Amino acid sequence: MHYNSGYSQGWSGGYPPPPHQGSWGPPPPHHHHQQYPPSPQYYPPPGPPSGPPPGHQYSPPPGPPPGQYSPPPGPPPGHQYPPPSGPPPSRHHHHTSSGSYPAYPSPAPSPYGHPHTPTPPPQSSSPGHIRSYSNHSQSWGPLPPRPPQEAQQFGNGAPSNYRFQYSNCTGRRKALLIGINYIGQPNALRGCINDVTNMSTFLNQKYGYRREDMVILTDDQKNPMSLPNKANILRAMQWLVKDAQPNDSLFIHFSGHGGRTPDLDGDEEDGYDDVIYPLDYRTAGHIVDDDMHAIMVRPLQPGVRLTAIFDSCHSGTALDLPYVYSTQGILKEPNLAKEAAQDLFSAFQSYGKGDLSSAAQTAIGFFKKAANGDTARQRTMQTKTSPADVVMFSGSKDTQTSADTFQDGEARGALSWAFIKTLQQRPNQSYLQLLNSIRNELEGKYTQKPQLSCSHPLDTNLLFVM
């Protein structure tokens, strides 16, 4: 398979880019909607996509999730899903978005309205005990402490004058939920829209997010402003963080195709930026992690919480957050020698199979990683830290693909399903316990390893709140 020279995308999933269909350019205009308030923090993406999405992602359920998520009935299908190749046909919707902006229909979730300050979701008043899942243990421990309210020092190589602040999540709540099945395209996904439907119900019932304070973008909707194209996604990201105040709780969930593209600014240790693929990626391009960080992380004040769930391939650092934590709660220091050895092994495998282009690409990545990894880490720590409280769970490491699965009678993304299930079963977990709970749900069924990353040094023994 020859790769089109117009693509510079790094592919680890083995899926060739879709056939070239004309020059790259902005997405077709959707009547110049002005419903999204302008944001001074908007950083437009650098340009057209460099290639197709890696192969697989998730589909969302058509209705609200059941009250409890039972464990998966069996191993997921072993399919890998290549990237979509063209725009989907018009379909009837079962998500609507409405709000104070005229172009949005009046039903359910209201994008771009002014969220109220809800009563915080109920917290367990009894001290109780929770089960610790660290290192696969089943020991009981005390209720994790709530986050401190005083300003915290960064350390770990961050600028010496930097402070950050945890959020107590008692202020306004806003959510942006994006699910793309790439309907009608050859590499369509099955569970992404289901993921969004389940997540919206979960947030509403368990964490007090009002439907009118959610923006839902899915590709089964009729309203052009509710389609997950690049322009709508970027505007919705701006809306999510606009006017955020300390102790507000913001939430973004993306379920769809993700991928990697060569890093152009030297801030990635592995030489690649993570990207997500909007519905119109073939004409409008992908969205790079650097741009998502600039739009949603950089503008936030101390004490604002942004919780991010990225259920996509190669999503380990989709928001470019510099602090990554292991299942033992220890800040990860990249082992470049080990990673480089793995890359060389992959290169030899590709060479042995006659895949010379993949072998060359892997080898180039190895040399760039060995030469630039330490510098990239320092650059990231200095430029991507934030005084806000940004926490992300991603579906896989930067170098991994994520699995589409079939749970409770419907197609779903593995991370989205596990995140909801573990918090439904036991809401009062620490960050470390939640990460291990999610991994335990997926272990033995999927090869992917969900990641926890943060905009600041995180005490992973604190109570997870949002």
Question: Would you kindly provide a written description of the structure presented here, covering whatever features stand out?
Answer:
Helix 1 packs parallel to helix 7, helix 5 runs antiparallel to helix 6 and helix 7 crosses helix 8. The chain starts with 128 loop residues before the first strand and ends in a 12-residue tail after the last strand. The N terminus is likely disordered. The protein has eight helices and 16 strands. The radius of gyration is 21 Å and the shape is globular. The protein is α/β, with parallel strands linked by helices and 466 residues long. The chain has a domain of 233 residues: 3-Layer(aba) Sandwich (Rossmann fold), CATH 3.40.50.12660. This is Metacaspase-1B. InterPro entries: Caspase-like_dom_sf (IPR029030), Metacaspase (IPR050452), Pept_C14_caspase (IPR011600).
Secondary-structure blueprint:
Blueprint: E1 129-131, E2 140-142, E3 152-153, E4 163-164, E5 173-179, H1 192-207, E6 214-218, H2 230-241, E7 249-255, E8 258-262, E9 272-276, H3 281-284, E10 287-288, H4 289-296, E11 305-311, E12 323-325, H5 336-352, H6 356-383, E13 389-394, E14 404-407, E15 410-413, H7 414-425, H8 431-442, E16 451-454
Parallel strand pairs: 5-6, 5-7, 7-11, 11-13
Antiparallel strand pairs: 1-2, 3-4, 8-9, 9-10, 12-16, 13-16, 14-15
Helix pairs in contact: 1-7, 5-6, 7-8
